[in-house]
Structure formats: structure tokens, C-alpha cells
Design a protein that fits this description.
Layout (H helix, E strand, L loop, with lengths): L3 E2 L4 H4 L1 H12 L5 H15 L2 H13 L4 H6 L11 H14 L1 H4 L8 H10 L4 H23 L2 E2 L1
Antiparallel strand pairs: 1-2
């Protein structure tokens, strides 16, 4: 194997793309604590170390405690999260994990969608989906910046 090289810089090499992605992020859910839980969960599923670190710090800044932050690793087994948070985390899992995403339109996924729709009325559900889509895209971009290719 050759030396590691070939990193990209999204902001420097594609400022228009960077601004577009930042715009997608601004369309996300306005509940900052909830958004940070979702961003941290998706970042964990995508194994984006940069984003995990960044959203751990952001979660603390919006008042989430260490137990909440750690709880995103196994939220299903945690009693820390209320129904609204659990609905957001379940939708995050559905729209993030590749194996789950391939079944997001199946009837078996209806309970996840129904719980999310009940917890996030009106345009809140769309804002939540933007938050999930945005962090998944950011995860992939940050991984691309951190991952080097072989010469």
C-alpha cells in the first residue's frame, strides 16, 4: 500500500456545494437538543468520528447530559428518552442504517413513521427528516475529508 493522501476539502474545493449543504442543515428541526440527539445518533451509525465529537460537544452546549449523550449509542435499551425523542431516534435509525433504509417504504416500517408523525405534527416531521438527511450527508462528506486514498 502507498502513502495515505488524496484528502478533499469540501469547503475549499466546492464552496457552492458546501453552501448548499449548509442550507439543507438550516432547514432542520428547530429544537436544538432534539436535533443534536438525532445528529449524534446518525453520526454513531455512520461511524463519523469527526461528527460524533462535534455533536457530543454541541449536545452539551444545548444542555444534554453525559447520560443522554451516551444513551444515543443504545437508545432502544435506555429509559432516558421520552416518546418524542424515541420517535425521532427510531426515524433516524430507519433513514440512516443502510439495511433499514432499504425497507423504509415497507409496511413493516409503518409504526416508525406513525410514531414520528404523531410526535411531530405538521411541518415538524419534514424538518426532522431534513435534520436526518442533512447529518447523513455531512457524515459522508466529513468521512470523505478524513479518509485518505492509496497512491
Amino acid at each position: 500500500m502507498g502513502a495515505m493522501s488524496g484528502r478533499i476539502s469540501v469547503r475549499a474545493q466546492s464552496p457552492d456545494g458546501y453552501r448548499a449543504l449548509a442550507g439543507l442543515t438550516r432547514a432542520g428541526h428547530p429544537d436544538h437538543a432534539l436535533a443534536e440527539l438525532v445528529k449524534l445518533r446518525a453520526s454513531r451509525l455512520n461511524n463519523c468520528r469527526y461528527c460524533i465529537d462535534m455533536h457530543t460537544e454541541a449536545a452539551r452546549k444545548v444542555g444534554l447530559g453525559d447520560d443522554d449523550i451516551a444513551g444515543t449509542a443504545d437508545w432502544q435499551g435506555s429509559v432516558l428518552f421520552d416518546d418524542r425523542q424515541r420517535a425521532a431516534l427510531a426515524l433516524t435509525d430507519l433513514l440512516t442504517a443502510t439495511e433499514a433504509l432499504s425497507h423504509a417504504e415497507d409496511a413493516a416500517a409503518a409504526p416508525v413513521w406513525d410514531a414520528a408523525a404523531a410526535a411531530f405534527p405538521g411541518d415538524e416531521l419534514t424538518q426532522l427528516v431534513f435534520t436526518i438527511a442533512g447529518i447523513n450527508t455531512w457524515n459522508r462528506m466529513m468521512i470523505a475529508e478524513a479518509v485518505a486514498t492509496d497512491d
